[in-house]
Amino acid sequence: MGSYIIKEAMPDDAEVIMQLVDAARRTMQENGNPCQWPEGYPSSAVIDDDLQHGDCYLVCNAGGKVVGSFVLRQGPDPSYGHIYEGKWLDDSMPYYVIHRVTSLPAAHGVFSAIVSYCIQYSDNLRIDTHRDNHIMRHLVEKYGFTYCGIIHLSRARSAERLAYQMISRNVCKVPQ
């Protein structure tokens, strides 16, 4: 593990992000998850949209090399509107969603850096992943997310994802 620097991605970072997407897709396929990111998704148009939103970030190692990327988008997210076979830990507070996490296979500790960065912006984070993405499921649970149920992606109604939520320990509900 190393220390990482996280910075906002700029439009001219699209090419390096697409390289990270391809590396992440290969890692998923090599680890029994061939369906989560089929060839062509996320497309360069999706990445360009993330960049235009201004909520796409790069993870750089101490030498400045880009080793990962992610999106941190403020909710509500249409895909998270209905959850099945479970419920959110809290469905009343504003939340942010972590999307499209990538990292180079040799870069370790990237997800930890992402979570540490994201909790600076919100005490209420959500994330989802494919049932077959055992690596991400392990990381999500390791870093404090709780499994909440199943959602269906708005971009493809049949695409089921396992949904997780983390409410930071800093959140304290005061009795009314």
Describe the protein.
The chain is of the alpha+beta class and 176 residues long. The chain has four helices and seven strands, in the order βααβββαβαββ. It has helices at 14-30, 44-53, 110-118, 134-142; strands at residues 5-8, 56-60, 66-74, 96-103, 124-129, 146-152, 160-167. Strands 1-2-3-4-5-7-6 form a seven-stranded mixed sheet. A hairpin with a 5-residue loop joins strand 2 and strand 3 (66-74).
How would you summarize this macromolecular structure in one to three sentences?
About 25% of the residues lie in helices and about 25% in strands. The protein is α+β, with helices and mostly antiparallel strands and about 180 residues long. Strands 1-2-3-4-5-7-6 form a 7-stranded mixed beta sheet.
Find the count of extended strands (DSSP E, 2+ residues): 7
What is the strand content? 25-35%
The helix/strand class is: alpha+beta
Overall shape:
globular
Distance between the termini: 44 Å
Rg for CA atoms: 16 Å
Helix content: 25-40%
Biggest β-sheet: count, sense, barrel?
A: 7 strands, mixed
Secondary structure tally, helices: 4
Strand order of the largest sheet: 1-2-3-4-5-7-6
Helix/strand order, N-terminal first: EHHEEEHEHEE
Say what oligomer this is.
single chain
Average pLDDT works out at 92
Poorly predicted ranges (pLDDT <50, ≥5 residues)? 171-176
